[in-house]
Amino acid sequence: MKETNIYETDELVSQYCDFQYGDDYFGVENFALTCAQKSIGYSKGTQQKKALDLGCATGRASFELTQSFDRVDGVDYSQAFIDAAEELQKNGQIRYAQNGEGDLKKQLLIDMTMYSFRDSCVKAQFFQGDACALDPEFKDYDLIMATNLIDRLYQPQLFLTSIHERINHGGVLLLTSPYTWREEYTAKEFWIGGYKDENGNEVSTLEGLKKLLDENFELIATEDIPFVIRETSRKFQHTISQMSVWRKR
Ligand SMILES: C[S@@+](CC[C@H](N)C(=O)[O-])C[C@H]1O[C@@H](n2cnc3c(N)ncnc32)[C@H](O)[C@@H]1O
């Protein structure tokens, strides 16, 4: 893992508080809520005991999953994100600063009583951890979701080739990613797609995922999921993630 982690800054914690719990922008639905709802939908018909939200950030999707699963583990590399999720769970609220123009900021409050998971949220537990080197106790899941994570991992192959060991048979692995591979996060030799092979053929990330996951998972669906991250009052990132849903053989 690289020495600096941009996800540890207050700025990023505030940005993700806003992204995961704040208003919707330009008619695009809350991404964490959408991903949790899709995950719950795809895991209907299998048992819904234990779920893992890898790269959970400030915990919104983990909390949403507690409405269907008996226990939800949220894991993130960033201690600052885990602290924010735990503060919300413990204190029922958290304050964050939303960027305006330049130095201007607005203080906002997230209040857990506003959400439908206000009672079930106690079923979530949060841990600092590394998706590429997870501790052995993270296992026996009926659902693992890893949204917008793979193109932020230093070696996504380590995660993708071992994750089957942690999912029950028939369980669901739900991935989303905009596949914006960047060398500051992932050295080029570890990109799963988004490059040309030695014969000049383009390799897409979905092809790369199939290669790594095919042995243990069946691909059951793909779908485009948009999201908007607010940077300032006048600057927003509008991105289209590709969701792929895999069932453990
Ligand atoms: C782009 S954000 C996505 C957050 C959230 N899942 C979402 O969909 O909005 C990537 C997240 O992955 C976390 N992350 C990065 N590398 C990680 C690793 N090796 N293990 C676990 N989490 C990691 C970051 O701290 C950050 O919370």
Strand content: 25-35%
Say how many strands there are.
11
Calculate the terminal CA-CA distance, rounded to whole Å: 31 Å
- N-to-C series of helices and strands: HHEHEHEEEEHEEEHEE
Q: How many DSSP helices? A: 6
Q: Domain count, please report it.
A: 1
Averaged pLDDT: 96
Tell me which CATH architecture applies here: 3-Layer(aba) Sandwich
CATH topology: Rossmann fold
Profile the largest sheet.
7 strands, mixed
CATH superfamily: Vaccinia Virus protein VP39
What's the layout of helices and strands?
Layout: H1 10-21, H2 31-42, E1 50-54, H3 60-65, E2 71-76, H4 79-91, E3 93-99, E4 105-111, E5 124-128, E6 141-147, H5 156-160, E7 167-177, E8 195-196, E9 202-203, H6 205-213, E10 217-232, E11 235-248
Parallel strand pairs: 1-2, 1-6, 2-5, 6-7
Antiparallel strand pairs: 3-4, 7-11, 8-9, 10-11
Bound molecules: S-adenosylmethionine.
Describe what you observe in this structure.
With 249 residues, the chain is α/β, with parallel strands linked by helices. The protein has one domain (6-248): Vaccinia Virus protein VP39 (Rossmann fold, 3-Layer(aba) Sandwich), CATH 3.40.50. The chain contains six helices and eleven strands. Strand 10 and strand 11 (235-248) form a beta hairpin. The longest helix has 13 residues, at 79-91. The structure holds S-adenosylmethionine. S-adenosylmethionine (SAM) binds next to helix 2.
